[in-house]
Structures are given as C-alpha cells and as structure tokens.
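tool_call: predict_structure(chain=1)
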Amino acid sequence: MIDKADWRIPYTASLRSDFRFIQNELRYAGLYGTVRRSTYYQGVCDLRPFGIDAPDTCMKALVDNDICLKGLSYGLLDHLLATIPEIHDPVGLLGVARFVIRNRLQRRGNPNERSSVIQAFEEFLATAELVEPTDAEESLAAEFESLAQVSGVSLDVGESQLCPMP
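tool_result:
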C-alpha cells in the first residue's frame, strides 16, 4: 500500500502544464505550505492535497547509461522503451548521463552516424526525467557496490545508484 507520494523537483526541471501549479508553491518552499526544501531538489512535497495519487505520478522505469547507449547505438531505444507496460510517464535517467552518454557518442567513428545518434539522444533527453540520488540513496548505493565487490559481481556506479531509487 502506498500511503504517501512525494514529488522531487530537480533544479533543472521544466514542469509539464498539469503541474504548473507547483511553481507557485516552490516560491515559498521551506517557509510555509506543502513544499519542503531539499539538498538536491528545489522542493519535495506530498501531492495528495492536490488530488494527485501516487500511481499517477510514479516513474515507471529508470534507464541505466549502458542500456541507453546500446539502445541508441543500435537504433532500438524506442523499441526497448515500448516494452515497458503503460509508459506514459517520463523514463528516469541519472542526471550525469546527459554528459557521459553525449561524450561517448561524440567519440564515435563515423561522423554521419554520430550526428543521427546524438540527435536521437537529444530527443530522448527532451522526454526523460533526470534524477539524482539523495544522500540516503548514495549511502545504500555504496553498500551495494561493496557487497557486489565482495561477492565478485559486476555492478557499476550508475547501476548501484539506480537500485535504491523508488
């Protein structure tokens, strides 16, 4: 049972029209109202008072850099995303991915291929929601990495950061 839905608003967020009412709340975040200040976000708030229930606002999927890069490279990213049931919400991607993936794509061999793949990435970025781990999620990610290392399992930093995210 989900009894509370928090909405994290990254500093780089541009709000969809159905969430524009939150912009007014952000001005007073931490002073009064429903929005609280946060280390990594403009604000965090419970959306239930606004009539928005958790299932309508939850992100359906988080995409790892490797999946994004391979999907773009083979022209299959749209097909991979289409396999996620009922995906009408944005797909989550670590904020650092926009730099890491773009950098790796720019170092590709064929310039003609490179520009079309970079264009596809920019189109994907326009629809994706960039996410950043909280302090608690980073601590848990470090524990996952440590356990993976002790167990001899391959787990990169991005994967470990995505695992604890709700």
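agent: The longest strand covers residues 41-46. Proceeding to next step.
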